[in-house]
Sequence to fold (254 residues):
Amino acid sequence: MKIIDLLKTIINAVGGTPKSEEKECRIHLTPKEMLEKITTLLSEDDFFRDFKFRKSDCCFISKNGGYRKEVHLDHYCKYDELVFYPIFDVKFDVLLNWFKKYNFKTIQDQKDNYSFGFSSSMLGKKSSYYYFGLDGKDFQSKFDSFKKELIECTKWVFTNYATLDLAYQHEIIPLLNGDKEMPDGGIEWAFEDLTLCRIVSPQNYDAFKKMVLERIEFLHGRNEPNLAHYYDKLDEIIAYMEGLSIEELENCKL
Fold:
């Protein structure tokens, strides 16, 4: 008797493959299949139907003129799980399109940038990570919880950052009042925040500009790498922005 025939005889004698194992094999998905399943379910949900799903970077996006809303479903595979790390962001073109003549990034990278972005934990959730076992165990309860928090975070960000005035209330006023610290790295935030303050509250611009420049000097003293590209032209860059009218800022295109 051939070995393969002998194995078949043994398996049949003990009743074949256990049904629990058969079921587990049937529902086990590849990371790609699990991703497709989750994004399809989200796309079909009433809340996300007004968004376009951009498959290339797994992002729900809605754009209205110079204002863009996005939910990025960043993800990776860890052992036998698909892990999501969603980012909720908005972009106001008026805040940084003017900067393109100085920006060392590619046009595509500039287009992909956002003005203000948040993870789930930044919005009060217990974690920024969401785990889905590829074996499908507890899928429905995990998906329901994931969708619930996605919708809650999306609503909060897109409500509280729906306009420049609202963004100013959440971003600039806490800095002016000393209730929040300026970023600990990077530099583009400085140009965006200065532009936001100049547009919404010109009466506070000089005081805010002083704070921003002090922070830039602090970062320069720490050899912030992103600042190196712009530090020598800092006065020129800010003066260029200040010389543009609000209408000119709004008409800047990438």
User: Anything to note?
Assistant: The CA atoms of residues 94 and 250 lie 5 Å apart. The two ends are 74 Å apart (CA to CA). The beta strands are 52-54, 59-64, 67-78, 81-92, 116-119, 130-133. Residues 164-251 form one domain.
